[in-house]
Amino acid sequence: MSMQNNAQSIPVKAAPTTTESNPLLQEWETPYQTPPFDKIKTEHYLPAIEFAIEEAKKEIYFITQQKSPATFENTIVALDRAGELLNRISGVFYNMIYCMASSDLTDVAQKVNPMMTQHGNDIRLDPALFARVKQVHDNPGALNTEQQQLLEKTYRSFVDNGANLSDSDKEKYREISMKLSTLSLDFGQNVLKYNNSWHKHITDKSKLKGIPEMQLTIAQEKAKAKGLDGYVFDLSTPSYLTIMKYADDSELRKEFYLKSSAKCYGGEFDNTIVMKDIINNRYALAQLLGYKNYAEYALKDRMAENTGNVYELLDNLLEYSLPAAKNEMASLTEFAKKQGFKDEIQRWDFTYYSEKQKNALYDLNDEMLKPYFKLENVIDGVFGLATTLFDLKFVPNKEIQTYHPDVKVYEVYRHDKFMAVLYMDFHPRDSKKEGAWMTSFREQHIDKGGLDVRPLVSLVMNFTPSTADHPSLLTFDEVTTFLHEFGHALHGMLSEVTYESLAGTSVPRDFVELPSQLMENWAAENDFLKTFAFHYKTGEVIPQALIQKLRDYDNFMAGYTSCRQLSFGYLDMMWYTTDPSTIKDVIKMERAIMDRMEVMPVVPGSCMSTSFNHIFSGGYAAGYYSYKWSEVLDADAFSLFQEKGIFNKKVADSLVDNILSEGASDKPMRLYVNFRSRRPDSDALLKRSGLKK
Length: 693
Description:
The chain is an alpha+beta fold. It has helices at residues 42-64, 72-81, 84-99, 103-124, 127-138, 145-159, 167-197, 213-225, 237-246, 250-261, 272-288, 294-299, 307-338, 347-362, 366-369, 375-390, 476-493, 509-520, 526-529, 544-553, 558-577, 586-594, 613-616, 626-644, 649-660, 668-676, 683-688, and strands at residues 199-202, 231-234, 392-396, 408-414, 417-425, 437-442, 445-446, 452-453, 456-460. The chain is built from 27 helices and 9 strands. The strands form 3 sheets. It has a 5-stranded mixed sheet. Helix 13 crosses helix 21 and helix 18 (509-520) crosses helix 24. The longest helix has 32 residues, at 307-338. The protein is globular and about 80 Å long.
């Protein structure tokens, strides 16, 4: 039934018949009402989601049919609490799509995604519901800051999703949003399938010269798992980086680079048409809502506010980063020539020679550090840091069900108050999306009975696995990634708001990375490393000399690294400020942007965009700049810890009180100023990176 033909409310169907055997529809008599993963099967999701959608419709219908005038409590708060069962089920379902994907589960997602999108549209395009929301928005009465934030966020969610459109344009909006829900899923699944479709089987060990024995052991175990002799390397991050960093065979590095750099450009898992369709539909959606392009639409509620401010940030950082990157490349070329390299450095040479140069300059490489970063010790270190700074206590709980044997679970307490359940999933597998992320099965909120419902937070990563000969030993980059994602987890676990839609990381995209990037700053701090970095065989604490090398190395290739991140930000902005009718050649358009920051020869056929999950399958469309935006914030914020002491309790408590516990209960800049006592300054980032004296 068409929504605009129903002037009263969302149509409610009879609830589908369900069986009592569906665990997704039962009360979870588990610790902290955590998901009973041992009972949930793929066939449970679709009927449970269908049922939960109908239940949510009834809750919305009740709001619209009230005779009493609309108020903040009976409309805005009631709407925030509607769909609790659906939120619970979808929280499990969508996390499994990324962590435990199977062809059967993907098939279910193809059915569920349009249903969820339609349900969201039914809510936001319901004229009776919007009339009540608008009534409260126009006459809010006396509200506190958090209530004002919820009201504004609720109202904007309707307006930004078509509530003010004509009936015919609402139909267009529905059509576009339905397409996007399927396209974004298709894009991400193509990347996952591409990664899983290829591996390199090598039986001649001589072709693997330069690769450390520890990495060879991992490759041997990959081969055994596939019933093969010899070694298997694939496109998972630890495996791919092993080849690029250490393999002396340039042709082998080239093969891996070419396979990765053309990911989903043409072939069986081609994403070129998918990404064009996503861009086209997002552009159409933005124009339908009265915006020039999708970037304008996406930025309106963020700290950056508009494309001009984004480009000002990117251009300012590029001014300092590009000259540094060119100098770094000249230095690397000179170094490589002294090593006997006679050609121009290519993409597949860069990581290999920069690793060697790093080792030569600082006598430092990953293999020297990894013995001190046994995963279990790193966990202890990160937990210990959270205890020191934020008074958190982590208690293992093996009674809580997990979706995979690798997952570790903890109860988290602060000042003896239960704060959260924390799941941690560390290692790659074929069913898991690449990368690292924080997510939640349930957000913190105060329920209608006044109970503080605590969050179920999950960290998902793809770290170097253990082998039969040694435990999981992390690279320094993996340790930093752990701290990054743990910063997101803190934002979720320490949330102390009233309303679920304002909890934890439910903040603007260019503010959400502040806690995560802030935590990275401790990675190379001497007093932090000394608490956990013990040699996995001898128990020896990481030597002071090695820590000093880490700190000396901290800004190695800072210009190149910054340019790389900036190039992704520019690329993202290009796709979402461009009229899609002008998009003909994806690679040509990509190169027009990336060439501004290029310091190496271009590889024909390479294409970043077709596997750019962040902006086509994730939540970073017209938002990738936020990593650099948040970097400005995190460098400025950490400078306060440096001034007062990196374990200073007063500063840490202020961080909790003004940012980590506050979610989206106030405007981001106001929260930041409350913490820092002033607006952020980009000089701290440029100086930290060594790009400005």
